[in-house]
């Protein structure tokens, strides 16, 4: 039989085991709670509170063209909240902000543009083409998912990425259509007046002012090309009567057409002999003013 001292010691051991088990159980609950919270954490929104602007740039070998998208306002459709992105369409985030859908103005169908819940070796389809997730990392408290798609941007090799708080790093038109003519890279994002430049190391400056290329904001002072896209003949309206030189290049930088401009306000070109694709039309006046626009040939 156990002595009184032995019984007392056994009681201490039992109490110690109970405390250890209790602490382990509490730790397990805390760990599970923490894991559950992290698994359902809110991601950063791609939208600002008041305003958001995305600036995408097409880096060709002899030109750089930008396209800008602006968050105009929100709207309720079918009891869902969407953000109107100028004349492009409607965007909607999931409740946890991990997913972004696109919806055309005249369609009720939603198209998934971004998914931050993907894992390594998962695929994401863009217009039926599947791209493989090959890297996932966190940088500056933002989750990034990287794919095996590396389009050519004249010596710049940037993979397709989904980044928390920013969205896809390639033109929304590419994400919606899969058309490789719109594989422009995200140059800048401005949220509530704060701008981030993602390509400043390429020599485009720290800011994101439209000072190196024209955008739709400069349409009144730039080139107006119609029809665009075109099947052959097109008309180029210049911002004013001017003299200078007109040059047309492919996206690889190859000059496919060049002519002098002799004090005129309109130029007509025949593109019937050109291959289908995107071309860069540039007019440089005698005084050095430069006007650039893209044209798509079918």
Give a structural overview.
The chain has two helices and 18 strands. By secondary structure, it is mainly beta. It has two domains: 52-202, no CATH class; 222-297, Immunoglobulin-like, CATH 2.60.40. The strands form three sheets. The chain has an eight-stranded antiparallel β-sheet. Residues 16-40 and 211-221 have low confidence and may be disordered.
Q: CA-to-CA gap between the ends?
A: 98 Å
As an assembly, this protein is: single chain
Radius of gyration: 28 Å
Pattern of helices and strands: HEEEEEEEEEEEHEEEEEEE
Q: How many domains would you count in the coordinates? A: 2
Q: How many E-type strands?
A: 18
Fraction of residues in H or I helices: 10-25%
Rounded mean pLDDT is 80
Structural shape: elongated
Tell me the strand order in the biggest sheet: 6-5-4-3-2-1-12-13
């Amino acid at each position: 039989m156990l002595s009184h001292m032995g019984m007392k010691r056994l009681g201490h051991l039992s109490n110690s085991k109970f405390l250890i088990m209790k602490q382990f159980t509490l730790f397990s609950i805390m760990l599970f709670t923490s894991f559950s919270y992290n698994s359902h954490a809110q991601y950063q929104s791609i939208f600002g509170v008041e305003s958001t602007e995305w600036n995408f740039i097409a880096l060709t070998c002899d030109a750089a063209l930008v396209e800008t998208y602006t968050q105009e306002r929100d709207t309720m459709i079918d009891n869902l909240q969407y953000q109107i992105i100028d004349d492009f369409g409607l965007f909607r985030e999931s409740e946890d902000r991990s997913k972004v859908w696109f919806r055309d103005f005249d369609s009720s169908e939603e198209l998934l543009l971004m998914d931050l819940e993907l894992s390594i070796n998962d695929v994401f389809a863009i217009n039926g083409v599947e791209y493989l997730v090959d890297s996932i990392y966190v940088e500056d408290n933002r989750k990034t998912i990287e794919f095996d798609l590396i389009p050519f941007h004249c010596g710049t090799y940037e993979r397709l990425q989904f980044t928390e708080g920013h969205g896809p790093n390639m033109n929304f038109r590419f994400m919606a259509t899969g058309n490789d003519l719109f594989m422009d890279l995200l140059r800048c994002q401005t949220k509530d007046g704060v701008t981030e430049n993602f390509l400043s190391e390429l020599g485009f400056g720290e800011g994101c002012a439209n000072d190196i290329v024209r955008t739709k904001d400069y349409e009144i002072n730039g080139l107006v090309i119609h029809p665009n896209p075109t099947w052959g003949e097109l008309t180029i309206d210049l911002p004013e009567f001017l003299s200078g030189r007109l040059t047309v290049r492919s996206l690889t930088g190859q000059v496919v057409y060049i002519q002098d401009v002799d004090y005129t306000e309109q130029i007509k070109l025949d593109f019937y002999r050109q291959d289908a694709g995107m071309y860069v039309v540039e007019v440089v006046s005698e005084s050095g003013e430069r006007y650039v626009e893209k044209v798509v040939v079918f």
